[in-house]
Amino acid sequence: MEQDEMLLGVQDYCHIINNMTDGYSYCKLTTDEEGNPIDYMFLQVNHAFLEKLGLTNNEVIGKPASEVIANFKAEESDLLQLFSQVALHGERRRLKKYFSILKEWCIVTVDSYKRGYFIVIYHFLSTAESNQDVTPDSYKEENFTYFNNAIINEFGYKDSYIENQTKDLKNRLEEKGAYLQKLLEYDKLKTDFFSNISHEFKTPLNVILGTLQLLNLYFKDNSSLDKRVKQKVRVIQQNCYRLLKLVNNLVDITKIDGGYYEISLENHNIVEIIKVITYSVKDYIEEKGIYFEFYSEEEEIVTACDPDQIERIMLNLLSNAIKFTKPEGRITISIKKRKDSLLVIVKDTGVGIPEDKLELVFERFMQANKTFSRNNGSGIGLALVKLLVELHKGSIRVESKLNEGSEFIIRLPIYTLDYEVNEKENVMEVQKEPIEKIHIEFSDIYFNQNY
């Protein structure tokens, strides 16, 4: 066999890595400003590793170990020290470790890749091996012999060729690692750009809206003014609200992505909160010739929530329902209690969503329904709704049939914080006068005005 035919291809290596019974991970060490190791990031893993953790590739790749592994400090403190020694000093090391979360013994073998990077092989011991006096030294020889043997058994290649291809694989991994780092840096630049540009938009918008409010006060004292002037001012104001809604959504999504968006959880009767919000838009719905209904199985469900964010979620879903429901249609808001959770359902008899577009509904900048070009939004609203629901430890899904309507179903956990529930008056105070918020969230809906 010619030498070039014997060389192991990168695809073959990936095939072997993914089909190994042992867990595999390629990682980057993370240090603080003083260079002390504090964490590590997963850059590549195999199927066996994912199966042990019960996670998917998207939940692991590019994520720090402290985020991926539960009880990281207790489970990983000794491993982090081991990984640091290997990544920073190039020492190949092994240890036998008991993972309390998995309730299994494991031989952990670590090899250096380049400074700051390392490769780990996790060999989980069988019950028989666990009962024997298995040590890291008795497990396998140096140079990942068992890994090389697997390659030799499957392809018949010799160690010299494997060593050459290992170097090639390491070079390719280095390139991918550098590419991933560039992508992360680009994503940060994009996030910073959205944040900065959003704030730059917000400042002049607030000035314009403040001026329009003064004009509206002036109009009240001068009823003789031309109605066309008042109409034009309303047009300007509504479109300012549309821009403000877009800016607010961009700012909030940027904050959530950056991990510094906070919600203020307090114990509230969430039924009352949702009821006040929905009835505050009843006139808007009926003005469009749409029937409206609110129903709750319980008068009171006390749970930890942020009323302002619940209001944001509901107004967004109601705005969406109004946009795509024709006159004589119906919008129903219902609340149902389950054992440890509650369901908030916003149902409409609108145009519905094609089945092949349902997965796009909560994606950013995607519009599942473009039937009415005038009603097209930015594609951010429902993505933000999903993020806000998830910040409440909840979930949201959609069921829909084309030309029959859509049903958005929110599931929120029922739990309380360790202090007294807020009084009803306080809840009402939070929800008092939400008119401007309604104007903002409903700004892309044109009501019966001669624009």
From TrEMBL:
Record key words, sorted: ATP-binding, Kinase, Nucleotide-binding, Phosphoprotein, Transferase, Two-component regulatory system
Keyword Hydrolase: no
Pfam entry (one): HisKA
Top-level taxon in the UniProt lineage: Bacteria
Domain PAS stretches: 29-91
Record CDD domains: HATPase_EvgS-ArcB-TorS-like (cd16922), HisKA (cd00082)
Catalyzed reactions per annotation: ATP + protein L-histidine = ADP + protein N-phospho-L-histidine
Record-linked PROSITE patterns: HIS_KIN, PAS
EC number in record: 2.7.13.3
Molecular function per GO: ATP binding; phosphorelay sensor kinase activity
Keyword hit for Transmembrane: no
Domain Histidine kinase, first and last residues per copy: 196-416
Cited Gene3D superfamilies: 1.10.287.130, Histidine kinase-like ATPase, C-terminal domain, PAS domain
Designated name of the protein: histidine kinase
Organism of derivation: Alkaliphilus pronyensis
